[in-house]
Every structure is written in structure tokens, then in C-alpha cells.
Specification:
The complex is a heterodimer of chains A (about 160) and B (about 325).
Chain A: H1 4-9, E1 11-12, H2 19-46, H3 53-89, H4 99-103, H5 126-133, E2 155-157
Helix pairs in contact in A: 2-3
Chain B: E1 12-17, E2 20-26, H1 31-52, H2 60-66, E3 71-73, H3 76-91, H4 101-106, H5 113-116, H6 133-136, E4 145-147, E5 152-154, H7 165-179, E6 185-189, E7 192-195, E8 205-210, E9 219-225, E10 229-234, E11 239-242, E12 245-248, E13 251-252, E14 257-258, E15 263-270, H8 273-286, H9 288-297, E16 302-306, E17 311-313, E18 321-322
Antiparallel strand pairs in B: 1-2, 2-6, 3-5, 4-5, 6-7, 7-10, 8-9, 9-18, 10-15, 11-12, 13-14, 15-16, 16-17
Helix pairs in contact in B: 1-7, 3-8, 7-8, 8-9
The chains are: A mainly alpha (about 160), B alpha+beta (about 325).
Chain lengths: ~160, ~325
């Protein structure tokens, strides 16, 4: 245990903003910006006086084209966004270093203070419970699984519900 | 053994028992067999609850408590849980103590929490016993007398037992042992997770330690759970108003009152659910400094969240933690 002091103090984890969320917001902003000009064009046409029918028709075609182009861009961006989300859900299991196995050598259990009444009880099954209490858990060697999809945890541990 | 193809869905069964929401997953391709087996688990939980609850006067626990001061024979299940609880009291130097029921009720927790939560201004009933307060409120685990040959116990007069979370943990542990004869399984016993073998093709059951300060689903850490248990003890949920103050259900046996701790939750990973539950509770009562030290000395994998939301994990938990964020 070279780094015993740090280990003793534990490791502090800092929660960070989900990059997936941040990326999605950026894309949605971009979509909103693209649609704004077509709304503006419609407003301008409505404000024009009567008698400019031909100009309206030409403008209408322009609006249609603009809308079609804008819609295509929006659809493309939405598709890209969905694809990006699907990509981001897939995660490969990280490799767990095998160094832990060497560090996790069992430590002798601290002797407990004598208890007045318990020594008179012969079958507390202390050996079995001792064995259970001192059983060292071994990290799951995820290295044996080349690629595992992490969708979401099956369950969450929390205080009693 | 046949297994389902979809790795993220397994036959499951939900039910409410022992004061909490239970969910059981079993990796069996035969849906009908899976459902039949899962229902048996629910029946097992209900039978255990009927025996171990403190909220029914007909339960074995209530009858034992009513006979404090007298030698009382108990069932094999009760005996197993009792001896386990006393052993864990010794291991935690009394921070975990099954003799604090009087103190729990003195704090207002004298009915099922679902009912208690609907009456936030509930006033506790006065204690009726004439025994000295120091004896009745807890810290009496060393005074419980046992007769191993008869599977009998004698509680000091006025002292009453409550197994709390370890009753739920022990029942879940037994249920996993039963289900493991059939297939890989996972039980969520009201927030305490107990896993059997890993699902086929996966290193374990992917579970998370929930963030106690987040309103929506949010995780502090993910890990693969296999043939082990992850229990969380906390004061973030079971709280209520008592005499104008907010109190919670975790009693400090040293004082007989709700623990004055700087921790919000403690999650412990262990081979057995009762061990995980007892140490999570002991560390929470001890507070961040002593609690972390206790867990560190015993090389227990654990995550501690203090009341400001700061997360500390023990070195033993580090190898188990999986990233909760996707890789870029």
C-alpha cells in the first residue's frame, strides 16, 4: 500500500454535468435558430398591401422552398441528434486493473472486548459468521467481457423505502 | 440453462412487504415457471414478516417482547436472526443494537411508516414501563440472555427487540439462496440489494448507489453485483415531526435518541445482506470521521454521503465502481 494515506482518506468524487444533456441542448438551440427566418418572412408578407398578387405568388414559392430547405435541415439535425444519443448510450465496460487483488490482502480482525453473557452461548455459529464477515469480495473481472452494453442500472440502493 | 435474449429485461415481480417495496428479478426463459417461482418469494417474505414484524401483536417478535423478563423459546428462524443480530452488535461495538425498540417508539415511530408519514405531527405515546430509562431505551444487547440448547432467550424486563433492516436483509438473503437453485436472481428489498449469480453473458447485475440529494433518478456510482449485497442506511427518507422537531428512525444506542450524525446515507457492499445492513447503520450513527475509519479498518467497500452531499468512498469500493457517464 504505497499510497496508504490517500486511501485512508478515501476518494472524493465530483459529480459533473451530463455531457449528453449538454450536447442535446446545443443542437436544439441550433434547430431553433434555423426556423426563425421563415417565420420572419411570413410576417413581412402579411403586412404588404393588396394588389401585389404576382409578387405574393413568387414570394410564396420562395417561402415554400425556404421552408422545404429549412425542414430538411431540421430533419437532418434531428436525425443526427437521435443517432448521437443512441451512440452515447452504448458504453464498453472498462478494464479493471488486477493490481487490487494484491492490495486486498485480508487484515486480521480486531479482537473484540469480552462480553459477559455471550461466552456461555455455545452455538452462536461464530465460525460461520466470522467467515462470512471476513470474506473478501473480489471485484468482478469485467475484463473477461470484451464489450458490455450499459443501458441503465437494474436497481438502485437507497435508504429504506 | 436457457436464458432470455434481452439482457436488460428479466421476469420480475413487485410487491409490498416488511414496510418496503420489493422487486425480484429471475433470469428464467420460461415465463410461467419464473412467475410461479417469484410468487413463492413473495409468500416467503410475507411469512417472514408475519413472524418478525413489530407492528402486529400476533407476531413472534411481539410475543417475545411482551414476555420480557421471562425465558421464551423461539423458532429456528427467530433464533438465527437473533444470534446474528447479537453477533453484529458485538462486531460493531454496540453501534448496531437490536434492543432499541423503546427508543424508536419514544421518537414517534410506533406504527408502520406508511401510516406515520400521513401523520407528520404525530405525538408519541408516553412509555408505560416503570423500568429506568437508561435500561429501556437501548444499549442492552449484552444483557440479553440466551439458552442455545433450548433456543430460548430472556430479555431484561422492559427491554424489547426490533431487528429492523437486518430482518429484511436476512429474508432477502434466504430468498436469493432459494432462487439461486433455479437461475441468476436479484432482489431489491426496499433499497437493499441482494444478488445471486450473474446473468448469463454479464459480469453481474448492474446496480447503482442512488444520490440521496437528487429529486430525480440520479446515481452516485454504478457497480456489478454478484453473490453479494449492497445495503444503504440513511436519514434522508424516514423522517417525521416530533414535538416541533424533525426526527428520524435511526437511534443511537449510546443516547437512546435519534442519531446526531453528519452523514446522510451510508452504502456498504458485503457478502451478506445482514452484514452490509448492520455496518451501514453503524457507520451512519458513528458519523463521517469515525464511520469511515471503522469501514476502512475492516476493508469494507462503502460509500458515505454527508449532509452537504459530499461523497466519500472507501478504498475497498474503488475497484468495484463503474463510470456512470458514457465514454465520449
Amino acid at each position: 500500500m504505497k499510497n496508504r494515506k490517500n486511501q485512508k482518506n478515501g476518494v472524493n468524487l465530483t459529480m459533473t454535468t451530463n455531457p449528453l444533456t449538454r450536447k442535446t441542448v446545443t443542437r436544439e438551440n441550433a434547430v431553433a435558430t434555423m426556423t426563425t427566418p421563415s417565420r420572419s418572412t411570413t410576417k413581412t408578407l402579411t403586412a404588404k398591401p393588396a394588389g401585389t398578387k404576382l409578387a405574393h405568388t413568387n414570394s410564396g414559392v420562395t417561402i415554400l422552398k425556404t421552408t422545404l430547405v429549412a425542414s430538411t435541415i431540421v430533419a437532418t439535425l434531428m436525425g443526427a441528434s437521435l443517432a448521437a444519443r443512441q451512440d452515447q448510450v452504448v458504453v464498453t465496460t472498462p478494464v479493471v486493473t488486477t493490481a487490487y487483488a494484491a492490495d486486498a490482502a485480508p487484515v486480521a480482525t480486531q479482537p473484540f472486548a469480552a462480553v459477559p453473557n455471550l461466552p456461555t452461548v455455545p452455538n452462536l455459529d461464530e465460525a460461520a459468521i466470522d467467515s462470512l464477515l471476513n470474506k473478501q469480495l473480489v471485484p468482478v473481472p469485467s475484463i473477461t467481457i470484451p464489450s458490455v452494453t450499459i443501458a441503465a442500472p437494474v436497481a438502485r440502493s437507497r435508504s429504506s423505502r | 440453462m436457457r436464458t432470455v435474449n434481452n439482457r436488460t429485461t428479466w421476469p420480475s415481480h413487485h410487491f409490498y412487504a416488511m414496510g418496503g417495496q420489493m422487486t425480484v428479478w429471475l433470469e428464467l426463459a420460461d415465463q410461467q415457471l419464473a412467475q410461479t417461482t417469484l410468487v413463492q418469494v413473495e409468500l416467503f417474505f410475507r411469512a417472514a414478516e408475519a413472524r418478525l414484524t413489530r407492528f402486529r401483536p400476533t407476531s413472534e417478535l411481539a410475543q417475545v417482547n411482551a414476555l420480557s423478563g421471562q425465558w421464551t423459546p423461539v423458532s429456528a428462524i427467530f433464533w438465527r436472526l437473533l444470534t446474528r443480530a447479537l453477533y453484529l452488535s458485538e462486531a460493531t461495538n454496540g453501534l448496531f443494537d437490536p434492543t432499541v425498540l423503546n427508543a424508536i417508539e419514544a421518537n414517534g415511530y410506533d406504527r408502520d411508516f406508511a401510516e406515520l408519514a400521513q401523520r407528520p405531527l404525530h405525538q408519541a405515546q408516553p412509555l408505560l414501563s416503570a423500568q429506568p430509562m437508561a435500561e429501556r431505551l437501548g444499549g442492552c444487547w449484552q444483557a440479553v440472555e440466551l439458552d442455545a440448547a433450548q433456543h430460548a432467550l430472556r430479555l431484561p424486563t422492559g427491554v424489547r427487540l426490533d431487528f429492523g433492516g437486518i430482518a429484511k436483509g436476512e429474508t432477502a438473503q434466504q430468498a436469493v439462496a432459494f432462487l439461486s437453485q433455479w437461475a441468476p436472481c436479484l432482489i431489491d428489498a426496499g433499497g437493499d440489494l441482494v444478488a445471486g449469480d450473474a446473468p448469463v453473458g454479464q459480469p453481474g447485475w448492474l446496480v447503482a448507489i442512488a444520490n440521496p440529494r437528487a429529486e430525480a433518478e440520479s446515481d452516485l456510482a454504478c457497480l456489478w453485483l454478484k453473490n453479494s449485497a449492497l445495503a444503504t442506511s440513511g436519514i434522508d427518507y424516514r423522517r417525521w415531526q416530533q414535538g416541533g422537531a424533525t426526527v428520524h428512525h435511526l437511534i443511537d444506542p449510546r443516547t437512546g435518541t435519534a442519531a446526531a450524525t453528519d452523514l446522510l446515507t451510508v452504502s456498504v457492499l458485503a457478502a451478506d445482506a445482514t452484514v452490509a445492513e448492520a455496518w451501514a447503520k453503524a457507520a451512519l450513527i458513528a458519523g463521517i470521521t469515525t464511520g469511515h475509519e471503522l469501514l476502512y479498518q475492516r476493508q469494507l467497500p462503502a460509500a458515505l454521503v454527508d449532509q452537504t452531499g459530499h461523497l466519500t468512498i472507501t478504498p475497498a469500493l474503488q475497484p468495484f465502481v463503474q463510470p456512470t457517464q458514457p465514454k465520449p
